[in-house]
Design goal:
The chain is α+β, with helices and mostly antiparallel strands and 278 residues long. The protein is built from ten helices and 13 strands. Helix content is 41%, strand content 23%.
Length: 278
């Protein structure tokens, strides 16, 4: 279900997600200068084009989402967060069930005037994720909440802008292929076969991927497979099962590709995730 609206206030995602969210699974606490919401969403639900009266940091603590801002489209999991400034139209679609955690803050409290008036994807430090979940929990003392928010603000200010996120092509035919590969990363059809399915030439699709994502089709598919692998690892799937599920013939080649992308083995990544969730 896609929810339509234009302007939302802090936490209004919670109020307007309708059947996509069970009221018993929504937590919301509003503080003096910021708000943090935690919302459990169903796959296939989302929010149509809308904007907020505050800056928003949107993070999927679990599951995944597509965020569209202008011509940019990103597919995000828990290792990235979307920064969406005040008044910027954006759309969210949840491609898997999970938990959306959002922080809202007045634009006067941005890390700096430079650059933060544009939407961007940030590489989220594990500590920042832990703080977001802490702030979206019940029964925290006000002084502790303020201290945690101050630390979170520092981490966000220092968070690198990600150019490694899985971007989705703007071309509708290339985007259809990208979405299909995210849904079935073990589909090993080559570019010619995918292009034929869309009724266009392989060169057309190849150009669209490079133009819209900055990566060749082959490079994009490797990144997409590892992106899906992260979600499976977070859910507790064994490494050997994840390797097969995302299209790798051998566990060793999967581990090598994963280490090259994330700087650690899949098992180490999954272990770090469990530590954060404790």
């Amino acid at each position: 279900m896609l929810i339509e609206d234009t302007i939302m206030s802090p936490g209004e995602h919670v109020d307007r997600v309708g059947a996509a969210v069970s009221p018993s699974h929504v937590r919301q606490w509003t503080f003096a200068e910021f708000a943090v919401t935690s919302t459990f969403v169903d796959g296939g639900s989302g929010f149509a084009l809308h904007r907020h009266e505050e800056d928003q940091l949107a993070w999927m603590a679990s599951g995944s989402m597509e965020v569209s801002v202008g011509s940019d489209r990103w597919h995000l999991r828990r290792d990235h967060a979307a920064w969406i400034p005040t008044g910027v139209l954006h759309e969210m679609r949840f491609t898997e069930p999970g938990e959306l955690v959002s922080a809202y803050v007045d634009q006067r409290h941005r890390p700096s005037p430079e650059g933060w008036n544009r939407a961007r994807v940030l590489t989220l430090d594990p500590l920042a994720g832990a703080l977001l979940r802490y702030l979206a929990a019940e029964g925290r003392r006000e002084t502790r909440r303020q201290e945690c928010f101050g630390l979170l603000s520092d981490l966000i200010a220092e968070a690198p802008v990600s150019r490694e996120v899985v971007a989705l092509p703007q071309d509708p035919r290339a985007r259809a292929i990208a979405v299909a590969l995210l849904a079935a990363p073990d589909d090993d059809r080559d570019l010619d076969a995918w292009a034929a399915q869309e009724g266009v030439s392989a060169k057309t699709i190849a150009r669209a991927f490079v133009s819209d994502t900055g990566r060749t089709f082959r490079e994009w598919r490797v990144r997409a497979r590892l992106h899906v692998a992260v979600g499976l690892l977070v859910q507790g799937a064994p490494v050997h099962e994840v390797a097969l599920a995302v299209g790798y013939d051998s566990v060793s080649s999967f581990i090598s590709a994963f280490r090259s992308r994330f700087g650690m083995t899949p098992a180490a990544y999954a272990g770090r995730t469990r530590e954060i969730d404790v």
